[in-house]
């Protein structure tokens, strides 16, 4: 393994020998396509303005993939190229967690291949592959990952996609299947009511944070709780659909979608920052992690339930949706 890391470090040095300020700026932009900021923009955009069902499935896929990635980083605890014992000078971006597998490589593959699958055309898959290759290369260029980290991220992302497209689809069919012998899981949850559904989602979030309850590891669990609870509330009480509420056509429709997205994200940012003011500065305080968890849960709840309600009832520039 050490020989592979040294080979990777030499490759990074060769790549960086061609570095220059304009190219570095481009690589920072490309690597940003696989950052958490990109998903903060992309996932609400799909959920609010494209298709709420696809947005929910994409959000769950990205979230579970991120959780798997973070868990593997803690379990394997692999170095990065700029860690002590390697080459401090190659790191153009600062990262705290271990290097293997690359989260940018893994999560971008999961995200863009799923999006490409909606179009069902070769050129969409080609574009998705190009984006993933550029993001992976940017991580090597910026010196934050060994090539083996990127390759590992792609392999794990590929395995996740295989489960998503094949096992996941069969599981969905089993959930929805109303067999003659009994009742489907979907119907069972519906008959159990809102309380049972929320308990199941809370249990899933608890399992996600069980291994290592720290700042990085509890974020996916908090988002999962807020996301799933919000989606359930939307389906039961709000009835928001991303395709409805746009009375305009052509370019005006895209302007309307922009106003919807802008207002929703602005409110999410305010909620996130406001909640952050009540979190203690001392990270070792007893209730620090609980409030940190709730910060992400509440913000996700706004995205998946609060904002949809907001879009339905308020007469904003894009028009009020008819109930």
Structural class: mainly alpha
- Measured distance between first and last alpha carbons: 60 Å
Helix segment tally: 11
Provide the CATH topology of the largest domain. Vanadium-containing Chloroperoxidase, domain 1
Poorly predicted spans: 174-180, 318-323
What is the CATH C level class of the largest domain, in words? Mainly Alpha
Mean of residue pLDDT values: 85
* CA-atom Rg in angstroms: 21 Å
| CATH structural architecture of the largest domain | Up-down Bundle
User: What's the β-strand tally?
Assistant: 0
Strand portion, in percent?
under 5%
The SSE order reads: HHHHHHHHHHH
The tally of domains stands at 2
Overall outline: globular
Descriptive report:
Helix content is 73%, strand content 0%. With 323 residues, the protein is mainly alpha-helical. The protein folds into 2 domains: 1-176, Vanadium-containing Chloroperoxidase, domain 1; 182-323, no CATH class. α2 packs across α6, α3 (36-49) packs across α10 and α10 runs antiparallel to α11. It starts with a helix and ends in a 10-residue tail after the last helix. The model is unreliable at 174-180 and 318-323 (pLDDT under 50).
Brief overview:
With 323 residues, this protein is mainly α. The chain is built from 11 helices and no strands.
Protein topology:
Elements: H1 2-16, H2 21-32, H3 36-49, H4 52-76, H5 103-119, H6 122-141, H7 147-176, H8 185-210, H9 215-238, H10 251-276, H11 288-313
